[in-house]
Design goal:
The chain has 148 residues and is mostly helical. The protein folds into 2 domains: 1-34; 44-147, no CATH class. 70% of the residues lie in helices and 3% in strands. The chain has 4 helices and 2 strands. The protein has helices spanning 8-31, 49-87, 99-110, 119-146; strands spanning 33-34, 37-38. The protein has a two-stranded antiparallel ribbon with strand order 1-2. Helix 1 (8-31) runs antiparallel to helix 2 (49-87) and helix 2 packs across helix 3 (99-110). The longest helix is centred in the middle third of the chain and has 39 residues, at 49-87. The radius of gyration is 19 Å and the shape is elongated. The N and C termini lie far apart (47 Å). The relative contact order is 0.16. Solcar repeats lie at residues 52-143. It comes from Strombidinopsis acuminata. This is Mitochondrial carrier protein. Keywords: Membrane, Mitochondrion, Mitochondrion inner membrane, Repeat, Transmembrane, Transmembrane helix, Transport. Belongs to the mitochondrial carrier (TC 2.A.29) family.
Length: 148
């Protein structure tokens, strides 16, 4: 039963870091003048068309997702190592309990790049997920408001 909770604390930190940076970035980007259009949390510019607004939202979602991954990558690496350590309990694995200790150990043994192991595929995955997720949400909300 305890195996189900392996890395739960690290997963919470990873998700808190990603979600807070992602949604804060989306808030800032949606209000900024990007692609010659000022956003505002919806389709404020009817002349832009639904397709262009959805495309703009997807591009901003991708950028925010990649940016947020810069902040959660060390927690993700530590989480993966904590979960792997849980599977190999008898192998003399050190410091598998504390997230802070795991981060410190990775930094001491592998340096700063060790905290960002596998960053490129992770950033692409989270960027695409952020783009599709926010674009689908905004498009759904636009459609629901249109047909009310």
């Amino acid at each position: 039963v305890l195996a189900l909770s392996a890395g739960f604390y690290a997963t919470c930190w990873r998700n808190c870091a990603w979600n807070s940076v992602y949604f804060a970035s989306m808030h800032v980007l949606r209000g900024a003048r990007i692609f010659g259009v000022r956003g505002g949390g919806g389709n404020d510019n009817p002349s832009d068309g639904l397709f262009l607004e959805t495309l703009r939202t997807a591009i901003l979602g991708f950028a925010a997702g990649v940016f947020a991954t810069c902040f959660n990558a060390p927690f993700d690496v530590a989480k993966s190592r904590l979960q792997a350590a849980r599977q190999s309990v008898g192998d003399g694995v050190k410091d598998r309990v504390s997230l802070r200790t795991q981060l410190r150990t990775i930094y001491a043994e592998e340096g700063f790049p060790g905290l960002y192991a596998g960053f490129t595929p992770k950033a692409m995955r989270m960027g695409l997920g952020g783009a599709v997720g926010i674009a689908a949400f905004e498009l759904t909300m636009t459609m629901l408001h249109t047909y009310q």
